Amino acid sequence: MANKKKWKDLPPAVRIGTVIVGVAQLVFLAAAQRDISQRPSDQIRGSKGIWRVVTLLNFVGPASYFVFGRKKATSKIATAR
What we know:
It contains four helices and no strands. It has helices at 12-38, 48-54, 60-69, 76-80.
């Protein structure tokens, strides 16, 4: 089994990169969770509960929610014509 590197053994650039990626992941997760909370159920494909669980999967979950989980908004201007 290979020796695992400890945090203090990593170069500063790797540590900074890891922190930045971690913060970005948390922001992406928070944005998805907030959108699920504020968006009406009829504008989400599927169950809000399922999407909440899916968004917990690293970057893949929130990205899949934003791409596949939200229904396209219809423009009120286009429908008024």
